[in-house]
Amino acid sequence: MERLLIEAPDVWDAALRALPDPHVLQSWLWGDLKAHQGWRVQRYLWQAAGRPLACAQLLLEQRRDAWLGYVPKGPAVDWSDAEQVTEVLADLERIARDEDLLLVKIDPDVTAESATGKALVACLRDRGWHYSFEQLQFRNTLVIDLQPDLDEILARMKGKGRYNIRLAVRKGVTVRPATPADLPLLVDMYTETAQRERFAIREPAYYRETWRAFLQSELGSGFIAEVEGDPVAMLILLHFGKRAWTMYAGSYNRQRQAMPTYLLQWEALRYAQSLGCTLYDMWGAPDVLNASDPLWGVYRFKSSFGAMLVSHIGAFDYPPHPWRYRMRVMFHPELAALRH
Predict the structure, then answer these.
(1) How does pLDDT run across 206-252, given as a tens digit for each residue?
(2) How many Å is the Cα radius of gyration of the chain?
(3) Alpha helices in 131-224 (DSSP H)
(4) pLDDT band at 289, cuts 50/70/90?
(5) Nearest Cα to 283, choosing from 249, 251, 242?
(6) 80 CB neighbour count, 10 Å cutoff
(7) Which of 120, 202, 227, 263 is the most exposed place for a label (fewest CB within 10 A)?
(8) Which DSSP letter does residue 49 get?
């Protein structure tokens, strides 16, 4: 395998799309957004005979006297190919040493209970990787298979999900595409949702910049649910390759009895299928399926669509200097944490 540093957007995204299950957080656009937010970005492609075999978009951030690296939802590689995995991991470890990083973090979408997932975890531990104290992304998520036709997808839903979609239609809920002109509205709804559900969010400028970039590209779509012309709920859908992700969604407190969020998800799902996506990732589920978990209500809502729970292996860190890593994590964990 030959390792190349890629600096052309079209070359990068084309190589990424040629790999199994590429993630939107490895796309050129996501890295470009992070570069504008102060990260250094290095994009590595492994190939043989001109054929892409792996990609790793490495984000680098300085925390005081240390540099930290992160490959979000990557690297992209055939995780069942032990030889390729070993070479990619060895190169990432080499890059971490050459860049004198405190750590390099990966969190690939590899199912924890699969044979591939168990083998990968064993491989990582044998090579000196540590299960990360900081899990930047959700380890668990809920996904819907988009390969059946819409009638079958609807039939697989729980009765409550089907009922609430139809109820929303009867209540006069409609869904329209969102445009960059809707950004103030989208951010306002998302902010109100965060306050109501008590989860932390970034400053509004972050969402305006991120959502504008995706809405103006081929990788993002926005949707707004309205009741008699009154906007009451929003959703941002990201899509890359054969997958789609509902990473951001929110609603106002009003008109919730009309169930606008159910029709909103259904229309976004239908749109993702029309793009040729085969998997709809609803992005995020509780670590433990228990009613005491803050995400329990979110889990119940998403599972009503017939979504399947998937648990990934989570994030692992490789520290080139284990003693320095242990000391920093033990005494100054905030200086070993990346920005979310």
Answers:
(1) 999 999 999 999 999 999 999 999 999 999 999 999 999 999 999 99
(2) 21
(3) 150-156, 159-170, 183-197, 204-215
(4) confident
(5) 249
(6) 14
(7) 202
(8) T
